[in-house]
Design goal:
By secondary structure, the protein is α+β, with helices and mostly antiparallel strands. It is built from four helices and ten strands; from the N terminus they run H-H-E-E-H-E-E-E-E-E-H-E-E-E. It has a single domain (43-79, 91-196), classed as tt1808, chain A.
Length: 204
């Protein structure tokens, strides 16, 4: 059967899971889909979650107060690439993401994944992350419509910003530098250093 035959039939392409089949794997399954292949996500440590939480805590109150949309923590599956037959070719789970108000259809079943790329995807780098795979994730988000992608490096305490309007350029923020995000969060000042501040883990 040719590729064109597969695309014109109302069935998934051979080897591609449908959304229903993917969700049937269960909420405990930490998985993504890359080029049609289901990939298990690696476990992460405390530092990863603390930094991701800092992004979430900085964005969520502002977004809610100004009715800009929705901020999601790790776990939201974004369907980035679906065949005409309904098979999933690409799906990723950002560590934190922002989706503008109005992009989730009013009649959408909220138990389903998000049908598209978030407006902002944030990825927190872990020590065992492969640089080529990470860049591939960034490019996939941008290619599928994300306005910006931020990659946070906890060890270096840097935020790398990729933008859809200039996908071949990279901006690096560190220390007291303010991340340029006016188009996403008008009036919000986001200082790079603040995302890497860790809580006092002492007793009492």
């Amino acid at each position: 059967m040719s590729l064109m035959d597969c695309q014109t039939m109302d069935v998934p392409q051979i080897g591609l899971l449908t959304e229903h089949e993917l969700m049937a794997l269960g909420s405990d399954a930490r998985i993504e889909v890359h080029n049609g292949e289901v990939v298990e996500m690696n476990p992460v440590g405390i530092l990863h979650h603390l930094v991701a939480g800092n992004f979430y805590d900085a964005l969520k109150p502002f977004v809610v107060q100004n009715r800009l949309g929705y901020v999601f923590m790790d776990g939201l599956l974004c369907l980035l690439d679906i065949s005409e037959g309904g098979g999933i070719k690409g799906a990723q789970v950002p560590d934190v993401c922002f989706i503008r108000r109005g992009r989730i259809p009013k009649d959408w079943n909220l138990e389903r994944p998000f049908p598209g790329a978030p407006d902002l995807a944030i990825e927190v780098v872990s020590p065992d992350d492969d640089p080529d795979e990470l860049l591939g994730r960034v490019r996939k988000y941008l290619a599928k419509g994300s306005e910006q992608v931020w990659v946070a490096y906890p060890r270096q305490q840097e935020v790398h910003q990729y933008r859809g309007d200039s996908p071949d350029s990279l901006r690096v923020y560190r220390g007291q530098q303010v991340i340029e995000a006016e188009s996403l969060f008008p009036g919000l000042k986001l200082v790079a250093h603040n995302f890497f501040v860790l809580p006092d883990l002492g007793e009492g």
